[in-house]
Design a protein that fits this description.
Strand order of the largest sheet: 2-1-3-4-5
CATH class of the largest domain: Alpha Beta
CATH superfamily of the largest domain: Resolvase, N-terminal catalytic domain
Largest sheet: 5 strands, mixed
Order of helices and strands: EHEHEHHEEHHHHHHHHH
Number of strands: 5
Shape: elongated
Structural class: alpha/beta
CATH architecture of the largest domain: 3-Layer(aba) Sandwich
Oligomer: single chain
Length: about 280
Amino acid sequence: MVGIEIGYARVSTSGQDLTAQRDALGALGVDAERVYIDHGLTGTNRDRPGLREALAACRAGDTLVVSKLDRLARSLPDARDIADELTRREVKLSLGGSVHDPTDPVGRLLFNVLAMVAEFESDLIRMRTREGLAVAKAKGRLRGRQPKLSPRQEAHLVELYRGGDKSPAELAELFGVGRSTVYRAIQRALPPQPGEKADAAGTGSTSCSTIHASTSSTTRTSTPPCTDPAAATIARLTGGNFRLIQRLFAQIAAACSPSTTSASMTADVVEAASSTLVLGAT
């Protein structure tokens, strides 16, 4: 039975094109329907879906065709393992039209040299990448993740929030950011209250006055002041999320009401009620 040619092509980044390799494989007699590809995968990792499919498609007497050895592997051990596996399965390996003969000492030498060159090129690329990143960092061009809001934008957002012109949801839509970004900007702008300790970021911990300032006027007037331990527990349960704090106050208003058996709310009460509170309700 006459064997068939199975093609394999690979590029390391998604921005690279496979046209040149496809054309080269077509010129070597490989049918376009029998070409397996890996797009955006490095050759230093043998675990590639396209390579697995190409190897699985090969049968005894077939030929695996690649335009260059570095498309098959960028590691000398991987290149040797693939070549040995193909030899055991009686599958030939064609490197740019030259069939590798594992029984020829000169052929084995050339194969190892080509594999070493491919591995060396991969190491050289990694080294140049690290050097480029180090130079960019030294020049201040590599600053990591940039904030979503500039200081001027954040100041404007806080000003609109304090003026009562916009809700957090409207501010998020206006500035094109998520609500969590809005909440963090507002929390950073809130000054520490008397007696509060500033945290590592320089912002004060959430207190009763801070929580009441973030709620509506109705909630602020109807809910009596709570104790500092209770505020700390509420802040821990809600993670400092103003929206959840508003909903939480709506649910515990009855517990803080003077008509209840206890006019004050302690941390133990809040902790005991945490398992039954539904923060999503209003």
